[in-house]
Structures are given as C-alpha cells and as structure tokens.
Specification:
By secondary structure, the chain is mostly helical. It has 15 helices and no strands. The longest helix is centred in the first third of the chain and has 28 residues.
C-alpha cells in the first residue's frame, strides 16, 4: 500500500503492520503474543530499523556506497529532528515521533543501528569473533536495547545487557542463515576471517557455492557463539512481566530454531535458505525442544 493513499490512522496502522509482517514474519508473529498496546509501537520502531537496513542492503546496489552513505546521514538528520519533536512530513517519522513522545526512546541504540549501516557501507571486515560481536551489537544488540521501553514499565536498566545479548544472538543467526545470499548479492562475508582460515574455508569457495570439509564445523563454531548469547539473555527474559515474557521468549525460540534448520539442510547455507515453518513456530511457543532436536540432527 503506497503511503500516499494512507488517508486515515487505520490505513496507517494497516500499512505499518503489513510492512512489519512482510519484512519479518518471525518477529511479527512473536509480537502478537505481546500486549496489544505495544504491538504498533514495536512495529513502528521495527520499520525505522528497516529504513536504515534497506539503505545498506538494497539501496546501495542501486546508487553505490558513497550515495548510500549520504542517504544514511539524511536518515540520521531526520532521526534527530524527530526526537527533537520536529518529525519530517512522512508517516514513519511522524509515527516514530509519537512513539518517542509516549515512551521516551533512548537515542543511543537508534544511533548505533545507523553506525552498523555505516560499517557495512564502508566495507569494514569481520576478522575476529570480537569483530562479529561488535558488528552484531550495532545492528542487533541495538534493536534489543531500543525495544526495552515497551517490555517493562518500571525501569529497565538491568535488562539492557540481556536484551543486547538476545539481539546479538539473533543477528548471528541471521548471518548464518544468509551466508550465500550475502556473498552473492552484496559481496559480504560476516563469518570471522580468523575462523574461516582455521577451518579451511575461503571467501572464494563461498562465492563459488562450494562447501569445503571444514564448512560445517565453522558453522557449528559460530552457532555456539550465538547459542551462548541466547543463554545469557534468558535471565533477562525471565525478569519480564508475564505478557511480555511470553512474546520475547517466543521470538527467541523461533529465531534460535533457524540454527537447527541450517543443520537440517546439511549446513548448506549457500544454496538453501533455512526457515522455520509456521506450525513449528507455534509449537515452540509452548514447548522448547531445541537441544533435543539439535542432538538428533548432529548424530
């Protein structure tokens, strides 16, 4: 639905939610388990994230990195205006301004997300596991942090670390799912160069769709990094009120299960895209059998 046709607030709500669902079926499904009062603010903030990400992942292919960097800076300026109470005449910015007015968003994680896009557009390499964590914190941990005002009313400073851990885990999961797509479309590899060399996996092999003998062990090593962050986030999830706990726990389980789907695809993340079926996502809300399935897939 083009934004020019959004005549009513109901139209805007429909556009925001349909865009949210289009860009993230998993997160939008999990958001349905959150209190209704925060669903639209979360969807609005997610679309801000997509606005930033799309410049680094899509727009750059149309206009090149230098022009894309200029557009990222334009987004930064519009964000500053929005948080200062002067949103541009655009549905997303106006609605983001309303969310900020109600929830007093912390600008720091929103700025971090923009810095993650700058990292991509300047083609900074991921050489070490620490680089992978740093990048994932900018583009994923920041999202976890910016969602905190919607999850608990009476203070959430104690939740920032586990929220970032969960966002980092989800971003590493995305990276593991999208290795083939990232190198084919964007000529990017987010797996640490140190680990690739240690496991005998070259950038050239990945670009050619080849999976050397060390490919699966490289992925398992990276999966372990994600799994550690998922585990570290659980204490924070447990501290949430029941309604928000259910939704965030659902999102964590659904995302983490992508790792098992990569295993189920025989670690082929170059030609096959791992996805979790709708039925399995719903089952995970009620029952977490990740470790049992992981053990079966690895035998």
């Amino acid at each position: 639905m083009p934004t020019a046709t959004l005549d009513t607030r109901a139209d805007e709500n429909q556009w925001i939610w349909e865009s949210f669902r289009y860009h993230s079926r998993t997160f939008s499904l999990a958001a349905r388990f959150l209190p209704r009062s925060v669903q639209m603010p979360i969807a609005t903030l997610y679309l801000f994230c997509r606005r930033v990400d799309s410049i680094a992942d899509q727009r750059v292919l149309e206009v090149g990195p230098e022009r894309a960097l200029d557009e990222v800076e334009q987004v930064r300026a519009r964000l500053h205006d929005t948080l200062a109470g002067r949103p541009p005449d655009d549905v997303l910015w106006r609605r983001l301004g309303e969310v900020h007015e109600e929830y007093e968003l912390d600008p720091n994680p929103l700025e971090e997300l923009i810095e993650g896009a700058v990292w991509d557009l300047k083609d900074r390499p991921i050489q070490t596991p620490d680089d992978l964590i740093a990048y994932s914190n900018l583009v994923g941990g920041s999202v976890g942090a910016m969602m905190l005002p919607f999850l608990r009313e009476n203070g959430h400073e104690d939740l920032e670390r586990p929220a970032r851990d969960l966002g980092i885990a989800m971003q590493i999961t995305n990276i593991l799912r999208d290795v083939g797509e990232d190198i084919e479309r964007l000529d990017r590899v987010y797996l640490p160069t140190e680990w690739m060399q240690a496991h005998g996996v070259s950038r050239k092999a990945l670009a050619n769709g080849q999976r050397p003998d060390g490919h699966s062990t490289l992925l398992e090593r990276t999966m372990t990094l994600a799994e550690e962050r998922y585990r570290q986030s659980y204490e924070g999830v447990a501290a949430l009120p029941f309604r928000t706990r259910v939704g965030i726990r659902a999102a964590a389980r659904m995302y983490r299960e992508i790792l098992n789907e990569v295993r189920a695809n025989d670690y082929d993340n170059l030609d096959r895209r791992a996805y979790v079926s709708f039925t399995r996502k719903l089952l995970l809300v009620a029952y977490d059998n990740y470790d049992w399935r992981k053990a079966r897939l690895r035998t």
